[in-house]
Amino acid sequence: MSTTTPRSGRALWALSAVRLKLFFREPGSMFWTFGFPLLVTVALGVAFRNQGQAKSPVAIVAGEGAERIRAALAAKPGLLARVVDAAEATRELRTGEAVLAIEAGAAPAPGAAPPLVFRYDPSRPEALATRRLADDVLQERAGRRDLVVTRDETAVTRGGRYVDWLVPGLLGLQLLNGAMWGAAFNIVNARQRKLLKRLAATPMRRGHYLLSYRVSGLVFVPLQVLVLFAFARVTFGVVIQGSALAVVGLAFLGSWAFAGLGLLCAARAQNSETANGLINLVTLPMMVFSGVFFSASRFPAVLQPVIRALPLSAFNEALRHVVNDGASIFSQGVPIAILVAWTVVTSVLAVRLFRWV
């Protein structure tokens, strides 16, 4: 009696179909793959929506001339001035309810204008700017004349809003979490339940087993892109300036690169606690450094080469250029090369290091 080895293609597709069925049986997986990014989009999109010019609160200490100061500052769109007593002004400065307090001091001589005292916390980024704005308004009201005539113009270009910048980063975070948790956690869970030990007795190849997680995961990538950008278009008017096919192509590449990290984390981990630690060790630094919620340029220059070499940083950089700037995918050679390098290295290491038990 002879036994035959199943065709490689048939085994791979059968394993991939199993992964898809297991995914749909887990409501939590559906939520973290599709629901959570939409909730984050709504929360941050509303928090940073365009609300016109922001107004800095100014507390004016009650006293002689306080109402005149308030009226002068009230005419400036960027200032929100209120007259309060000295104790209330001190409290508002301490709690951050006001970024600047103004009090008229004692006149140096009879009939002279009293000096103005500006109180503020220099550690607050907006405090110094508010102080300068208030001083300019009051100096102009007192008769100062500027030699250079200026005017303010404000404009928000398409693709230049915070929510436009945010959505590509959320897609990267969505693909990262889906690839990492969908592959690493499930593999380690199967190893912990002794299921991999049974598979080791079959003619299944390690590469096919690991690849099945990627094939099943890639099925959802176009759907993830469609759901997130359609939702962002309807709710906040986010528009893809470049090629939609380029966005999907980058999403496929990014998901594959992230999955290599997930498979590498699962190669030897023996229990879910170890897997959770490894996944968090990989994902949390990238969530902070790779510019998902704020620009990575905030970090010191010495860290920038390392940050740009991270796969999530490369994905976010390329996707934002395509989505917001309308750039061609062929102009993103450096970030694409970084993603390809991560894909190849992590995939090869994962297959070599993987153990059934």
> What does the main sheet amount to?
4 strands, mixed
SSE pattern, N- to C-terminal = HHEHEHEEHHHHHHHHHH
What is the 3D form?
A: elongated
Strand line-up in the sheet with most strands: 2-1-3-4
Counting DSSP H or I runs of 4 or more residues, the number of helices is: 14
Helix content: 55-70%
> How many DSSP E strands?
4
Determine the N-to-C terminus distance.
30 Å
Low-confidence segments, given as residue ranges, are: 1-5, 150-155
What is the C-alpha radius of gyration, as a whole number of Å? 29 Å
Q: What's the mean pLDDT score? A: 80
SSE-based structural type: mainly alpha
Beta-strand residue percentage? 5-15%
Count up the domains.
Answer: 2
Task: List the topology elements.
Blueprint lengths: L7 H17 L2 H21 L8 E6 L4 H9 L4 E6 L1 H10 L4 E5 L11 E4 L5 H17 L20 H31 L2 H5 L6 H13 L2 H16 L7 H23 L5 H18 L14 H5 L2 H15 L7 H21 L4
Parallel strand pairs: 1-2, 1-3
Antiparallel strand pairs: 3-4
Report on this structure.
By secondary structure, the chain is mainly alpha-helical. The protein has two domains: 12-48 and 158-353, no CATH class; 56-141, Periplasmic binding protein-like II (D-Maltodextrin-Binding Protein, domain 2, 3-Layer(aba) Sandwich). It is 62% helix and 6% strand. The chain is built from 14 helices and four strands. The protein has helices at 8-24, 27-47, 66-74, 86-95, 125-141, 162-192, 195-199, 206-218, 221-236, 244-266, 272-289, 304-308, 311-325, 333-353; strands at residues 56-61, 79-84, 100-104, 116-119. The protein has a four-stranded mixed β-sheet with strand order 2-1-3-4, with helices on both faces. The radius of gyration is 29 Å and the shape is elongated. The chain starts with 7 loop residues before the first helix and ends with a helix. Mean pLDDT is 80; it is low at 1-5 and 150-155.
